């Protein structure tokens, strides 16, 4: 991969880090502990942290921020932000109901999906990635429904307990349906990837998660060279992408 920006060793620039699909929840305390350690020991030495969706296994609404599992995570984000580390969050398919109350409490900035950023002199396009899985028609129909503001308003008007029960039922049904789908259907569609790249004027980098299939893909499209980085999940991998002024590199805890 080509170097980013100025590669003078005299210029020390802190890296930017990218993660997704942590699926933090109280039933996996070891993952939460690993993440809090990652924030304290690794992210604290970086310029910025980009969380590209599915930080939590699910998010029932911002009125759940006082949950005992959520508080240490929010506090750790706030501590990082106050130390000067910039933190950005993009909705995933599990936590799209995260809103202003959570972001203000954690001192993080909410990004649109997709978002273009300047990454050490290179244009990088960020996405969660679920919108690219266009072959999974059932999921895309569901995604359109739950991302509708009117649906969300009605859903959030219910009690927190009722929302959690409904989400658990949806998750169980989703797991059963996924077991019947081919892995190919649940991956990104290359035509959808190409369309997104063209729409955003051929950025040098496309970084996304969702599929849990970490890899570095090289794309040649209309005379342009694009690198597509797929982020891994944290169930077994604990992976993240580290980008500095020289290159990007997939890392593991």
First-residue to last-residue Cα separation: 23 Å
Strand order of the largest sheet: 4-3-2-1-10-11
* CATH homologous superfamily grouping: Metallo-dependent phosphatases
CATH fold type? Purple Acid Phosphatase, chain A, domain 2
Helical residues, percent? 25-40%
Structural class: alpha/beta
Low-pLDDT residue spans: 1-10
CATH architecture: 4-Layer Sandwich
**Total beta-strand segments:** 11
> Please, how many domains?
1
Q: What is the residue-averaged pLDDT?
A: 93
Could you describe the largest sheet, including whether it forms a barrel? 6 strands, mixed
What does the overall shape look like?
globular
Radius of gyration, taken over Cα atoms and rounded to an integer in Å: 18 Å
CATH class: Alpha Beta
Strand content: 15-25%
Q: Helix tally?
A: 7
């Amino acid at each position: 991969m080509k170097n980013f920006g100025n590669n003078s060793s005299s210029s020390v620039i802190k890296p930017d880090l990218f993660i997704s699909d942590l699926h933090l929840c109280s039933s996996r305390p070891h993952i939460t502990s690993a993440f809090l350690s990652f924030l304290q020991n690794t992210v604290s030495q970086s310029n910025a942290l980009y969380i590209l969706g599915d930080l939590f296994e699910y998010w029932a609404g911002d009125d759940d921020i006082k949950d005992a599992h959520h508080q240490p995570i929010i506090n750790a984000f706030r501590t990082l932000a106050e130390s000067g580390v910039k933190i950005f969050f993009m909705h995933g398919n599990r936590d799209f109901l995260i809103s202003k109350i959570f972001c203000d409490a954690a001192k993080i900035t909410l990004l649109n999906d997709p978002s273009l950023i300047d990454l050490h002199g290179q244009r990088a396009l960020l996405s969660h990635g679920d919108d690219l899985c266009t072959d999974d028609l059932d999921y895309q129909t569901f995604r359109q429904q739950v991302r509708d503001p009117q649906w969300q308003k009605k859903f959030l008007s219910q009690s927190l307990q009722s929302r959690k029960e409904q989400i658990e039922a949806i998750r169980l049904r989703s797991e059963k349906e996924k077991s019947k789908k081919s892995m190919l259907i649940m991956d990104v569609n290359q035509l959808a990837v190409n369309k997104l790249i063209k729409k955003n004027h051929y950025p040098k980098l496309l970084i996304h998660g969702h599929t849990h299939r970490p890899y570095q893909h090289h794309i040649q499209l209309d005379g342009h060279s694009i690198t597509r980085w797929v982020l891994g999940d944290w169930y077994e991998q604990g992976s993240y992408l580290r980008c500095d002024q020289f290159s990007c590199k997939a890392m593991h805890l």
